[in-house]
Amino acid sequence: MSPKPKLTLRYMQLEDIPQVMAIDRLAFDLPWSQRSYAYEIAESDHSHMVVLELKREIPATGWRRWFGINGKPHLEKWVVGYGGLWNIVGEAHISTIAVHPKARGRGWGEILLAGMVRRSIGLGAEEVVLEVRVSNTRAQNLYRKYDFQRVGIKAQYYRNNNEDAYDMRLRIDNQTICEQFEARYNGLLSQYLFVDLYNTFVPPSH
Fold first, then answer.
1. How far apart are CA 47 and CA 92, in angstroms?
2. Mean pLDDT in the chain?
3. 199: closest CA among 108, 102, 115?
4. Residue 104 in contact with residue 139, Cβ under 8 Å?
5. By mean pLDDT, which of 135-139, 169-173, 202-206 is the weakest?
6. How confident is the model at residue 76 (pLDDT cuts 50, 70, 90)?
7. Does pLDDT of 59 surpass 60?
8. Do residues 97 and 109 lie in contact, with contact meaning Cβ atoms separated by under 8 Å?
9. Number of alpha helices (DSSP H) and beta strands (DSSP E) in the chain
10. Which one of 40, 50, 88, 195 has the lowest number of neighbouring Cβ atoms within 10 Å?
């Protein structure tokens, strides 16, 4: 049996921006700019950007040995997904979430979503909100799995084609709800064996 991928959920850093933007361009018709990501990471007091990082050991063969690696595995890291979270006056807003097309279908988008919900609880938010295209049923199914409710429609929300968006929300101001979510999150940790630094490490203030 092959080992499980070594996944780490952590705060996005400035050096992640090129990889994040590459995924953004593949996932969305209106990608964010480099300046937008830099602002969210380094300047905004309300932003909690996250990445899911995959680490993999590459055996040292051929030319690697010639460069003094002496047969030791080479550790390579990739950002396979990312998300954005704004926390303002008790409302946590998931601004963006995406997984690289080649990494989809493995449950990694669920890790990102659940990680941001857990961060929202830790920040003391009362609800988590997001917008999703009315045609994006796959994403809607994931959000409903985590008990997001559709509360309205934002007409012509997406500028590229004027498509409507569903306004979906999850209340997290109830202790029972938070305890149920934590039990589900622990199950996710056991299933994927990822390391959650996003919810255990608080970055310094900007």
1. 10
2. 91
3. 115
4. no
5. 202-206
6. confident
7. yes
8. yes
9. 6, 8
10. 88
Q: State what percent of residues in the chain have pLDDT above 90.
A: 82
Tokens of 162: 């004027």
The H or E element that residue 184 is part of is: helix 175-192
Find residue 53's DSSP bridge partners. Answer: 8, 79
71 alpha carbon, distance to own chain's centre: 35
Q: What is the DSSP letter of 197?
A: -
3-state SS assignment for residue 142? helix
Which pTM does this prediction carry? 0.90
Q: What domains sit in the chain, N to C, each tagged with a CATH number?
A: 6-192 (3.40.630.30)
Sheet holding 50-58, edge to edge: 149-154, 165-171, 127-133, 91-99, 74-88, 50-58, 6-11, 195-196
Residue 205 has a pLDDT of 60
Task: Report, in angstroms and rounded to the nearest whole number, the Rg of the chain calculated over CA atoms.
Answer: 18
With cut-offs at 50, 70 and 90, classify the pLDDT of residue 56.
confident
d(CA 104, CA 132): 18
Residue 3 has pLDDT above 80, yes or no: no
CA distances (Å), 11 to each of 82, 120, 131, 163, 192, in order? 9, 14, 22, 31, 19
Instruction: Give φ, ψ of 194 to 5 degrees.
Output: -90, 160
Q: Which residues pair with 195 in a beta bridge?
A: 8
Q: Which two tokens stand for residue 131?
A: 């917008």
Cα–Cα distances in Å, from 189 out to 20, 27, 53, 70, 192?
Answer: 23, 26, 15, 35, 6
